[in-house]
Amino acid sequence: MRRARRQSGISKAVTMRMMRHSFATHLLESGTNIRIIQALLGHRSLNTTAIYTHVSSTTVCAVPSPLESLPNLPEPPAQS
Asked: What is the pLDDT of residues 13-35, one digit of tens each?
């Protein structure tokens, strides 16, 4: 791990746990199903996998609201 960190040019400390978190997060953000990530990480519980996945706010904001797919309803008549 240390040799790989040095060879990559990363200057800050890196742990295997950090690598697992990054691996899981990048997979999730690229659209990989969380059940697949669960299998790759070897977790029995999906709750454990959820601990390893941190979604960026950019990814969250890019998800369209289901409400946007509703048809446009006509405006109610103006009341006088």
From this structure: 888 888 888 888 889 888 898 89
